[in-house]
Each structure stands twice: as C-alpha cells, then as structure tokens.
Design brief:
This protein has helices at 2-27, 32-39, 61-71, 109-120, and strands at 41-42, 53-57, 76-80, 83-87, 91-98, 101-108. By secondary structure, the chain is α+β, with helices and mostly antiparallel strands. The relative contact order is 0.13.
Length: 141
C-alpha cells in the first residue's frame, strides 16, 4: 500500500509539472515586460541609455496598448496625442507613435516617472499609495 501512495503522489507532481511547463510555453513570461519582450521586435538603436529598452510594432499605439492591457491590466494609464503611458507595479510601458507604427519603451517606474512626469503628471496615481521614492526613514510621510 505504501508504494501505491508514493506512486499517486509522484504522478500528481508530474501532472502539475507538465501543466506549469505548458502554461509557461504557451503564455511566455508572467509580466507586462515579458509580454512585450515576447511579442514585439527589439530595437536596440532606440534604447534610452540603459533605462528604457525599445521595441517596435507596425501597429498603431492604440492597438499595441489594447493588446498589452488586455493581457496585463495596468495600475494606471494615461493617453494623449504624444502616446500611451502604462504604469505597472514595477515597470512602465510607454507606446509612442512613429512613422512605421509604434515605438514601445520598457522602463522601471523609478526612472520612467521622472522622465514622463511632465506628460503624465499625477495621472499615474502618485500619492495614492504608490511611491517612486525608495523606502527608508521618512518614506510614506
């Protein structure tokens, strides 16, 4: 009876492993960053230093934004004529119009917010529990 119990436990772990592997293969990375990395064309010449990693798409910014937000709901979103600005917990996805479609910039929120503050202002939800400031003495005051 003991061998049978171990066989059942082993089989259950094997099934769980197969399901996790299949999910990873079909759905790729488990973040907005991974979604963009898996679906759009890398454009290293458009990177902004080491902070913003660039990708491109032949689709309009609104179409790219719809794809990204359908897969990953942003914490905050701002849209105007200059582009689509998506804020997630750790990352931002900024989608700008270019002649051939869209430029998609992936960047940590801590560097994206200062870069795009003049555009997004307070619409990214700063002050509603989000913070670009690091933790430590005085944070949250």
């Amino acid at each position: 009876m003991t061998y049978r119990r171990w066989f059942v436990v082993g089989a259950a772990f094997a099934v769980i492993g197969v399901l996790v592997a299949a999910f990873a293969i079909f759905y790729g990375n488990f973040s907005p960053r991974g979604y963009v990395e898996d679906r759009y064309t890398r454009a290293t010449s458009q990177d902004i230093g080491r902070d913003a990693i660039a990708y491109t798409s032949t689709k309009r910014p609104s179409e790219v934004a719809d794809e990204v937000t359908d897969a990953w709901k942003p914490a905050d979103q701002y849209v105007d004529g200059s582009g689509v600005y998506l804020r997630y917990d750790d990352d931002s996805v900024v989608i700008l119009p270019v002649a051939a479609g869209s430029l998609i910039l992936l960047e940590r929120v801590s560097t994206a917010y200062p870069r795009y503050h003049s555009t997004v202002g307070n619409s990214w939800g700063w002050g509603r529990g989000s913070s670009v400031r690091g933790g430590g003495p005085g944070s949250g005051k």
